[in-house]
Specification:
Shape: globular
Strand order of the largest sheet: 3-4-5-2-7-18-8-15
Strand content: 15-25%
Number of helices: 11
Number of strands: 18
Oligomer: single chain
Structural class: alpha/beta
Amino acid sequence: MKRFARLALLFLLAAPAAAFAAALPVKVMVLTAFPPELAPWLKHMEHPQQIKVAGAYAPVWCDPRGVCVTETGEGQINAATSVAAILASPQLQLGHALFLRAGIAGGPPWGDDTLGGAYWADWVVSWDLGHHLTAQSHGQAEPLFLPLGDDHPALGTHAFHLNPALVKLAYGVTRDVKLADDRAARDNRKLYPTQTGRTPNVAIGATITGDDFWSGVQLSRVAQTIMNHYTHGEAHYATTAMEDTGDADALARRGLLAHYLSLRTISDFDQPPAGQTAAAMLLSHNYPGGHIAFENAYRVGAAFVAYDLAHSRAVAKAMTADSVAAVSYPLNAAQAMGH
C-alpha cells in the first residue's frame, strides 16, 4: 500500500497544474468567423487570458469578467466543430453562458435591410438542405429550389427557431444603439432605388446559412422561398451568412440552443444594381458596407454583453423562458427511415 501511495504522490507532483485547475466560469462566449470580426473584441478586452482548446479552430480569449471570444473559422462545418470542441472542453464552464454569434452578412436591398444594418435572428435556416436546380432542362423551365420531401428523414438541422424571449430582450436593449455609417455605404445605396433615404438600424430578421457564395435577384427570391417553406411562413429573410446553423446544431445537441443569439450586420447586397451582372459584382470583391458592418457588429454585440453583465438575472430568465420545442437527438430508427 505504501508503494502505491508513493506512486500516486509522484503522479500528482509530476502532473501539470493546469490539469487540476478549476474550469473557468464563462458568462458570455462571443463567436466570430474570421480576423476582422474578432479584432474589435480583442482590442477592447482588458487582460485577456488565452486558452487553447483541443479541436477548436482558434484559441479562446477570456477576460476577468467571464467574457470570452473566439474565431471559429468560416462555414458551417468549421463553426459546428469549433463550438462542439469548446463545449467539450474541461477548461471552460459553459452551462450558464450566453452564446453570441457576432458577424457580417449579405442582405437583400428590399424590405427593411440596408448596408450597416444590424439584425437579431429569430430563425436560422439552411440554404443547402434541399434540391437546387438549373433554370432550364431541355428547354423547359425548372423551379430553382425544391425542399426536402416527406420521403426524407427528419434531419433536424434545416431550421432552428431561436429563443423568442432572448431575441426580444436583445432587440429591446440594443434597438437605440447608434450605428456607424460612411460614404462608401451611402454611395452604394444610391445604386438601388429601394434604398433611397435608408440608414442603418437595429431590427429582427432571419438569417439563411450556406457555404455557397450565391448572388442575384432570382436567388434572393429563392432565399425567401426557403425561409417560407422551412419556417411555415413565419420568417422574414434579412441576412445571408455561413456559420449559424453550425452553431445552433452544436448547441442544440448539448441542450443549450436557448442560450444562443445570432447578430448579423450587412456588408453587401445579395444582388447587383441595375446594369451590372452578379458575376461582375462578385469578382470585384467589393463590400461597400464592410467597414461599418464590422464596427456595428461590435457596437450592438458589446451593448448587449454589457447589459448581460449588469443584469445577469434578466438574461438568465430569458434563456430559461424559451417556448420553442427542443430539437431531439439522436433520431430514432423510424425517423431515420423517414417514417
